[in-house]
Write a structure and sequence with these properties.
Layout (H helix, E strand, L loop, with lengths): L2 H13 L8 H13 L4 H18 L5 H13 L1
Amino acid sequence: MTLEVRIKRLERQRDHPANPGPDPETVAEWARLWIEAGMEEPRATVAALEFLIHCQSTGVTPTIAALNKWAHCESEG
């Protein structure tokens, strides 16, 4: 799956009325962390969306600790 397809899929999930997903400002705020670490903006946006959707679906508050745990689980899976 290409990055563009992943972005569109995540945006559709975010825009669905039954599952509004994270707001754009929150996505941009979290994406900034990846961008500052040297990741390209589109990939950073996807990473932020995936992380925030994960938090929303599991009821986890998006924090740096939650991000570290999520990243560790993602790297193992």
